[in-house]
Write a structure and sequence with these properties.
24% of the residues lie in helices and 30% in strands. The protein is built from seven helices and twelve strands.
């Protein structure tokens, strides 16, 4: 478990890095904001090539998860990441969002679904995606973090309507300390990892929200605690452990995300040491449940 001082340092670093809350609030309709987010999270092959269509969705300090240090930020940085594969310059992508939701203040949100790319030669690259968004100063939804992962071919999941809004008006979150909220989320993430030392499947079931979504062994998503538990039976032979490194929280205190390093819990003494230059990252989106506990909504 990271000490509070380290978590505070991480939160401060995020603020310096630009993943900070936009000050101020305004009256708004959550249904309208959510519809705007889903519209923004739709990309057609006709919109252009992959190296331009995805980068323009990102915030100034937004990141796309990739192997190695997460130094490339913003639209230009994401374009550089995608440009590492030179074929992407003539590859067209379709981003089909099938689910998501927004925070109580209408300023943060998440989406998930598919980003399938078509090469100029006709080859296809199939992928799942999930992303955390925030409304920028211009009022446009922008991605703070996004993961894109290869998937198998097969039947994809249909649109999953979000929960019915009980209170359609946006809340006024003045006075919420997002640094403290982020500490809570990171503490939950570390507790999640600690729980996986006893049972990976039970840990994922316990820390999943009741309607959590996760990419599975097929192209379709799986939903709910029990389906996610079954995904980890039998468990990975070497176990799993992880630790959050960066993240951000909604000003309304109900959503947030963490990004960090993950790997086997049992280290093979004969294996080469983890190379930070090529290591991957995990990206988890969290929601506070009705009991005040943080549970992941997609991972």
């Amino acid at each position: 478990m990271l000490p509070a001082a380290v978590l505070l340092t991480l939160a401060a670093h995020l603020s310096v890095a630009g993943i900070a809350r936009i000050p101020g609030s305004e009256a708004c309709d959550l249904a309208e904001r959510r519809a705007e987010l889903f519209k923004r999270a739709a990309v057609s092959e006709d919109d252009g090539y992959l190296t331009s269509t995805l980068p323009r969705l990102f915030a100034e300090q937004g990141l796309m998860l990739t192997a190695g240090p997460l130094d490339d930020r913003g639209p230009a940085g994401v374009a550089r990441v995608l440009g590492r594969d030179t074929l992407n310059a003539t590859t067209r992508a379709r981003m089909a969002t099938i689910g998501g939701d927004i925070s109580a203040d209408g300023m943060d949100g998440f989406t998930y679904g598919y980003v399938d790319a078509r090469r100029a030669n006709g080859d296809s690259l199939l992928a799942w995606y999930h992303a955390y968004w925030r409304r920028g100063k211009s009022g446009q939804w922008e991605i703070l973090a996004m993961a894109r992962r290869r998937r198998p071919p097969g039947q994809t999941s249909a649109w999953k309507p979000p929960a019915v809004l009980v209170k359609p008006e946006c809340s006024d979150p003045r006075g919420v300390d997002t640094s403290l909220v982020l500490q809570e989320i990171m503490a939950a993430d570390l507790a999640f990892s600690d729980s996986a030392a006893r049972s990976v499947s039970n840990a994922f079931a316990m820390f999943a929200s009741v309607d959590a979504a996760k990419s599975g062994k097929e192209a379709a998503y799986i939903y709910g605690k029990e389906a996610i538990r079954e995904l980890f039976e039998p468990p990975p032979p070497a176990g799993l452990k992880w630790e959050p490194e960066i993240g951000s929280a909604a000003r309304s205190g109900d959503f947030g995300f963490t990004v960090g390093a993950a790997g086997p819990r049992t280290v093979d003494a004969t294996a080469p040491p983890r190379n930070p230059a090529t290591a991957g990252h995990y990206f988890t989106i969290w929601r506070r449940d009705t009991g005040g506990r943080w549970r992941f909504i997609i991972d």
